[in-house]
């Protein structure tokens, strides 16, 4: 609304200014200006409405109460399977979305949940594969763990999503960056977007303690981010100033003060995206080739290692459970860490923290990097359709409707109410969350890490193993396996039905 008013006011001022100039040249004076202004206002409002109108372009359909059977993960069932209102804005928004889609198309959303954490990946994928091989039609769609659903995808168990009618991946409720990155030679098997809460909850971010920032004269971190100066080197410089033996035992331990607290683990893998060192790149034919063992990667490893192994970094902050947002970062909540590596969804579990804190993106490699970037944890929910599912129009319409309705109801509830209003402490954090939201990207090699012999864990493992990591030799020792895995991936896309 503010943008609309500004456009109208600017247009009015332009007309009035022009009328003043030409009034002595036969113009109609103030009456003419008023008339022109009224017409301009109407035209501006109509133009703005046309620019902002957004519809899902779905046809009117009555599916006669038919079930749309979706296999989901029990641990993340709250993304889809809500049975009653609780007063929680996100819970109720999911329920509202489901009811709206069911009523609109006279269909029943039948969400079937089974264990689907990483530890249950074999059982989950076997359930999917067995159903497809038996042709029992148990599931119309599958919504599951990105990392382990890639393997059955390239093995031919799922439809090419680009052939599903009514799925419009140009719409803002889909992650265009994800879908463009994961499309090879006209094939896309997995997609994500606003239909899944994990797309937002699982984003890698930093939190910072404002009281500690003031005490240690760190300065305005929000301004530093906006000025483009929030780099890994700057993070090291800032966090190195903060540490202390709180419990007085003479050593830095779990009860003490740190500049940076990190769970390590997959938060180290995030440097692949946040510092832009891709595992693969597309060659001239549009197919992925390895580029991981590069000078850029070696430089990222060097910077990340210095930060990770600093005395001012607490490397045991592992209080992160599943679902990811449920973990409570105790050391940060108790004012014993200036900076925290965490997920955006964890902001909600800090609602009772007395000290003000801010949300900022993960630091970029250096000031020449064109933007800050983030990505979801690889447990983010991806959608796919079993190859044995034949009513693609039915599946496409209901899936597009669910994603579009999420854009209108669930995302605003999570983003505007649960984060920006209910939990985020100030307008600066709101601006930072907007910036983070606009910086989501995916890396093809990371997403396809499992069939590439878990190449995505290499950065994590070398950083965790030693303060003097030897990435190049570790990579060389496994390069043949990585290449073999990538060849299978390339062949799968080349031989897929387009």
Give a verbal description of the structure.
With about 500 residues, the protein is an alpha/beta fold. The chain folds into three domains: about 1-45; about 65-200 and about 380-420, Periplasmic binding protein-like II (D-Maltodextrin-Binding Protein, domain 2, 3-Layer(aba) Sandwich); about 205-375 and about 430-475, D-Maltodextrin-Binding Protein, domain 2. About 45% of the residues lie in helices and about 10% in strands. It is built from 20 helices and twelve strands. A hairpin with a 5-residue loop joins β7 and β8. α10 packs parallel to α13. About 40% of the residues are buried. Mean pLDDT is about 90; it is low at about 1-50.
Features:
six-stranded mixed beta sheet; D-Maltodextrin-Binding Protein, domain 2; 11% strand; alpha/beta; disordered N terminus; globular; 12 strands; 498 residues; 3 domains; four-stranded mixed beta sheet
How big a fraction of the residues is strand?
A: 5-15%
Uncertain segments are 1-52
Fraction of residues in H or I helices: 40-55%
Looking at the structure, the CATH topology of the largest domain is: D-Maltodextrin-Binding Protein, domain 2
Cα distance spanning the termini: 43 Å
Largest sheet, in brief, is: 6 strands, mixed
Count the E strands.
12
CATH architecture of the largest domain: 3-Layer(aba) Sandwich
CATH H-level superfamily of the largest domain = Periplasmic binding protein-like II
Radius of gyration based on Cα positions: 26 Å
In the CATH hierarchy, what is the class of the largest domain? Alpha Beta
């Amino acid at each position: 609304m503010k943008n609309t008013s500004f456009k109208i006011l600017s247009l009015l001022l332009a007309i009035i200014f022009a009328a003043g100039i030409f009034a002595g040249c036969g113009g109609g004076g103030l009456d003419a200006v008023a008339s022109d202004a009224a017409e301009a206002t109407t035209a501006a409002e109509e133009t703005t409405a046309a620019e902002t109108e957004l519809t899902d372009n779905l046809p009117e359909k009555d599916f006669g109460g038919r079930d749309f059977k979706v296999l989901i993960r029990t641990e993340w069932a709250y993304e889809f399977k809500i049975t009653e209102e609780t007063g929680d804005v996100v819970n109720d928004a999911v329920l509202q979305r489901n009811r709206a889609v069911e009523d609109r198309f006279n269909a029943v959303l039948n969400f079937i949940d089974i264990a689907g954490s990483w530890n249950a990946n074999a059982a989950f994928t076997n359930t999917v594969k067995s159903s497809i091989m038996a042709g029992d039609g148990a599931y119309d769609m599958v919504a599951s763990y990105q990392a382990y659903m890639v393997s059955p995808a390239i093995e031919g168990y799922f439809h090419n999503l680009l052939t599903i009618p009514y799925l419009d991946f140009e719409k803002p409720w889909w992650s265009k960056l994800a879908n463009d990155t994961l499309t090879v030679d006209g094939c896309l098997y997995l997609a994500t977007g606003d239909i899944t809460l994990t797309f937002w909850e699982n984003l890698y971010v930093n939190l910072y303690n404002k009281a500690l920032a003031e005490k240690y004269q760190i300065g305005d971190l929000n301004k530093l981010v906006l000025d483009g100066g929030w780099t890994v080197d700057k993070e090291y410089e800032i966090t190195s100033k903060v540490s202390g033996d709180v419990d007085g035992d003479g050593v830095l331990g779990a009860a003490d003060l740190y500049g940076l607290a990190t769970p390590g683990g997959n938060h180290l893998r995030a440097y692949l995206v946040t510092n832009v060192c891709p595992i693969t790149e597309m060659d001239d034919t549009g197919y992925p080739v390895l580029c991981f063992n590069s000078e850029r990667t070696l430089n990222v490893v060097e910077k990340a290692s210095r930060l990770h192994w600093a005395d001012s970094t607490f490397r045991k902050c592992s209080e992160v459970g599943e679902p990811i947002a449920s973990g409570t970062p105790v050391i940060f909540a108790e004012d014993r860490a200036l900076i925290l590596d965490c997920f955006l969804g964890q902001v909600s579990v800090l609602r009772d923290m007395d000290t003000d804190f801010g949300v900022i993106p993960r630091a970029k490699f250096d000031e020449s990097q064109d933007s800050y970037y983030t990505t979801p944890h690889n447990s983010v929910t991806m959608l796919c359709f079993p190859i044995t599912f034949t009513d693609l129009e039915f599946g496409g319409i209901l899936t597009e409707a669910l994603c579009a309705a999420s854009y209108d109801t669930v995302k605003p509830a999570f983003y505007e109410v649960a984060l920006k209003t209910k939990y985020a402490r100030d307008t600066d954090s709101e601006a930072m969350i907007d910036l983070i939201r606009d910086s989501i990207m995916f890396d093809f090699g990371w997403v396809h890490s499992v069939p590439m012999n878990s190449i995505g864990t290499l950065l994590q493992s070398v950083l965790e193993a030693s303060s003097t990591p030897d990435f190049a030799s570790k990579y060389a020792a496994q390069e043949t396996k990585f290449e073999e895995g990538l060849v299978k991936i390339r062949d799968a896309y080349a031989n897929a039905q387009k």
